[in-house]
Amino acid sequence: MGLVETKLAIIPGAGGTQRLPRTIGVSLAKELIFSARIVDGEEAKSIGLISHVVEQNEAGDAAYRRALALAREFLPQGPVAMRDLYGNIFLGIVFGVNDELLLCSLQTIPTKDRIEGLLAFKEKRPPRYKGE
Fold it and tell me: Is a pLDDT exceeding 90 seen at residue 73?
């Protein structure tokens, strides 16, 4: 994994100069961009660039299987909140914490799923979300 554009005398695109500093910090982002150094999975994880490193299996689908395991963890959550959270995480970075918290609240307060989640918690049972 690396930003090789510097070796080609061009500026990294696809958000490399905007997203990378926000993800791993300005100093380390500059080092990687200026050097065009390729990092392996272990280093990428240690600097916070990726979340998981998996050993490849015989079928060649270890990353896919890890992604499925994560998806299974996400699946039980309220679908309306999950849909809106994805974009709100980025909005929180751009606009700040208070604006993002207000936006999240406004999106989920009127939903039936929110009521179901609260009831399920109170009744100590798994929620049965409907995406409403």
Answer: yes
Cα gap 97→129, rounded to integer Å: 27
Report whether 33 contacts 16 (CB < 8 A). Answer: yes
Phi and psi at residue 61, to the nearest 5°: -125, 30
Quick one: how far is CA 87 from the chain centroid? 10
Q: If you search the block for the tokens 């061009």, which residue do you land on?
A: 10
Give DSSP secondary structure letters for 31-50: HHHHHT----HHHHHHTTS-
- Whole-model pTM: value is 0.60
Between the alpha carbon of residue 5 and those of residues 16, 23, 53, 62, 67, the distances in Å are 10, 19, 25, 29, 28
Query: Whose structure tokens read 């039936």?
Result: 112
Beta strands in 27-123 (DSSP E): none
User: Which whole-number Å values give the CA distances from 114 to 29, 44, 57, 72, 131, in the listed order?
Assistant: 39, 37, 40, 20, 10
Average pLDDT on 52-60 reads 95
